[in-house]
Amino acid sequence: MSAIAAPDRVAAHLNRGGRWRPFEIAFWLAIVALIFALPSRALLINEILLAGLFALSLDLVLGYAGIVSLGQAAFFGTGAYAAGIIATLGVAEPLIGLVLASVIAGLLGLITAPLLLRGSDLTRLMVTLGVALLLGELANRNEWITGGADGLSLAAKPVLGLFPIDFTGQRNASLYSLAVLFALFVAARRLVQSPFGLSVRALKENPLRANALGVSAARRLIAIYGIAAAYAGASGALVAQTTGLVSLDVFDFHRSADVMLMLIIGGPGYLYGGLIGAAFFIALKDGVASATPEYWEFWIGLPLVVLVLVGRERIGGFIARWARRAALLAMRGAA
Questions:
Q1: Which of 155, 180, 183 is nearest to 169 (CA)?
Q2: Which long-range contacts link 261-264 to residues 24+ away (Cβ below 8 Å)?
Q3: Most buried among 33, 36, 93, 216, by the most CB within 10 A?
Q4: 249 vs 226, 239, 312, CA distance in Å?
Q5: Which residues, 6 or more positions from 60, have their beta carbon under 8 angstroms from its beta carbon?
Q6: pLDDT at residue number 1
Q7: 195-204, 274-283, 317-326: lowest mean pLDDT where?
């Protein structure tokens, strides 16, 4: 009886994990409301959404698979240049360019993933960083197709021929980025709750036990790395399409470092961490840079140092305690 009921229990557990909670629905509806309520900040909101998608790609490899990477910029830049080159070749529909750019970045991830199967985390850091530097130099040398140091300019056509996403349609660009982010987030949510996602998590937690149970580490790590690369490529493609410019900056080390900081701020391993970290990092960067243009890096680095030293859990517990106290005082005052 228990043997027969075991698959049903597993299916019920997977179904519970896949259900949407009220706060999740409120989270996405709040983003839509912000886009319409703050049209003057549509450019900043779009930047946050694209950074959130980029952080989501890193969360898949670091938060769920445990692969430490400092080279996500390799796939981000590949997607950006692929989308730019496809647009300059005459492909008018941005969705086609987005899909092709994501596929190209994903294939690059599958090709380079076997390099990560051997060695320690330090080796993986060096390999991923080296791939990004190599691609950046290739883009610099082949200026006949990438534009070299001058970059690549493109004029993205309206999505489906109806919705402009250039600087004349910043709200449409934000909604376009949000639609892509939400679709990929839903796919990632299903992925991490699937048996494949659970097996990847098992490999991260205890690879020896997972291998003893017959879980193939190599194929799963290569697959999740390729999927994450496609997500990063989609983020880069969206940046190219909504800004109309691709430069060598997309392969720079700071891209990988910034997205790592975003994920650390929000917390790896639960998908929303990258989105929350991206919103916090970019909003803080925008606000501090406007207030103190000369010392903005100091005021961004300070809370990050505090976060690392104190710990996200302690800070969250401190905020929760003060929130409860404030709510209690408000209730007493009302009484």
A1: 155
A2: 261/304, 262/51, 262/52, 262/54, 262/55, 263/55, 263/58, 263/59, 263/62, 263/63, 264/304, 264/307, 264/308
A3: 93
A4: 23, 12, 31
A5: 188, 191, 192, 224, 227, 228, 231
A6: 43
A7: 317-326
If you average pLDDT over residues 170-178, what whole number do you get? 87
Cβ partners under 8 Å of residue 118, min gap 6: none
Strand, coil or helix: 225: helix
Confidence of residue 224 (pLDDT cuts 50, 70, 90): very high
Question: At residue 16, does pLDDT exceed 70?
Answer: no
Q: Which residues contact 182 (CB under 8 A, 6 or more apart)?
A: 28
CA–CA separation, 58 vs 53, rounded Å? 9
> Per-residue confidence at 69, pLDDT binned at 50, 70, 90?
confident
DSSP run (H or E) holding 152: strand 152-153
End-to-end CA distance of the chain: 56
Say what the pLDDT of residue 233 is: 93
Within the chain, residue ranges assigned H as helices are 2-18, 22-37, 42-58, 72-88, 94-112, 121-141, 143-146, 170-193, 195-205, 207-212, 217-243, 253-266, 272-291, 296-310, 312-334
Give the Cα separation of 102 and 233 in Å (integer).
5
Between residues 166 and 201, which one has the greater pLDDT? Answer: 201
What is the DSSP code string of 244-256?
A: SEE-GGGGSHHHH
Whole-number pLDDT of residue 29: 92
- Ranges of each domain in the chain: 22-291, 297-335
pLDDT class of 18 with cuts at 50, 70, 90: low
User: Rounded distance, CA 222 to CA 117, Å?
Assistant: 8
Question: Could you give the CA distance from residue 69 to residue 257 in angstroms, rounded to a whole number?
Answer: 10
Task: Name the DSSP class of 158.
Answer: P
